[in-house]
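sry for the spam today, last one i promise. struct tokens for design, 214 residues
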């Protein structure tokens, strides 16, 4: 998984005198078959077929023939076999285009743009019972969490409360108790969401629910 620290290490790569091949390849199965993408890959590699990077083109071809499982939507790959440098990042998000670059350093600008666009964001689904939290990273679900407070449903059905045994039989009292419980649930959900947000390098937070609850 590509992370901010991984991007920083790639950015700090020290040239070794050997070229680095940076490959960005779309492999979305909804668009084309794996065979079509292999043809595209061969075309890209043919354009850089030089003796200095022959070992890299062979390693890249072997990776897609024998190791890659074709389950993502794109792949970013960096190779410098002479420098013993090899990094692969199968991604769940698409690339603007497929291309290949040969330089003294990894070409990471498109990857940085993807990270800015699809990097970590959280989704909070909130209602009167609490919140369900989801952490997405580069288009993939990374972690979930949640909190469920005292159930308003039980009060609506006339059930007692574990915080004092209130029931709905009191009419206005039951309605007020529902509001109090819902308010406490939302406070608990807000605290959990804040903690969830602060513990991760989340760039965006999406809150979903009814207009009043949000």
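last one done:
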């Amino acid at each position: 998984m590509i992370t901010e620290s991984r991007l920083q290490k790639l950015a700090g790569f020290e040239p070794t005198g050997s070229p680095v091949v940076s490959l960005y390849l779309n492999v979305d199965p909804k668009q084309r078959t794996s065979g079509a993408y292999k043809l595209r890959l061969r075309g890209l590699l043919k354009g850089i077929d030089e003796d200095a990077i022959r070992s890299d083109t062979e390693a890249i071809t072997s990776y897609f023939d024998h190791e890659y499982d074709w389950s993502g939507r794109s792949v970013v790959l960096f190779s410098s076999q002479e420098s013993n440098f090899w990094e692969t990042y199968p991604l769940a998000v698409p690339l603007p285009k497929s291309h290949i670059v040969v330089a003294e350093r990894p070409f990471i600008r498109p990857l940085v743009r993807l990270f800015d666009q699809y990097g970590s964001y959280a989704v909070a689904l909130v209602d009167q019972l609490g919140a369900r939290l989801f952490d997405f990273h580069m288009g993939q679900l990374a972690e979930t969490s949640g909190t469920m407070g005292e159930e308003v449903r039980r009060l609506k059905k006339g059930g007692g409360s574990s915080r004092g045994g209130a029931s709905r039989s009191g009419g206005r009292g039951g309605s007020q108790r529902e509001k109090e419980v819902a308010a406490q649930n939302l406070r608990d959900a807000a605290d959990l969401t804040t903690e969830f947000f602060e513990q991760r390098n989340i760039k965006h937070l999406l809150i979903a629910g009814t207009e009043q609850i949000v």
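The chain has six helices and eight strands. ok im logging off now
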